[in-house]
Amino acid sequence: MNAPILTLCRTCRDADPALPGQAAAVLEAAGVKVKLQQVDCMSGCKRPQTLAVRQSGKTAYLFGEITAKDLPDILTFLRMYGESADGNFADARPLGNLRFKAIARIPAETA
Question: Containing domain of residue 43, as a range?
């Protein structure tokens, strides 16, 4: 299966231009295999800086108000996401504060 794709908005007001670099360094140091990309506006403007996580065949997520402080919780999310067959979790409490930053959960496509 392909690695998850993490997409950070680079045009959110108050976007931290260092966050993508910090995220890449943390993910690499943790040995997490993902594709990290930046895009212009993901329409999460009321809760900037937005982060999308998606992988083929799994539920996709959109988070808002992401900062460098969220990187440990993002690592936990990615480990749980990787272990989940469909991208869903029975218990989101291990995600710490990240679980309160969810904007949307988009179900995977069905056959």
Answer: 5-106
The CATH number of whichever domain residue 41 belongs to comes to 3.40.30
> From the CB of residue 110, how many other CB atoms can be counted at a distance below 10 Å?
5
The count of structural domains within the chain is 1
Q: Are strands 60-63 and 51-54 parallel, antiparallel or unpaired?
A: antiparallel
**Residue 111 maps to a domain:** no
Strands 102-106, 60-63: pairing kind: antiparallel
Amino acid at 45: C
Tokens found for residue 99? 């679980």
Q: What is the pLDDT along the chain (111 residues), one digit of tens a residue?
A: 589 999 999 888 888 888 999 999 999 999 999 999 999 989 888 898 999 999 999 999 999 999 999 999 999 999 999 999 999 999 999 999 999 999 999 999 876
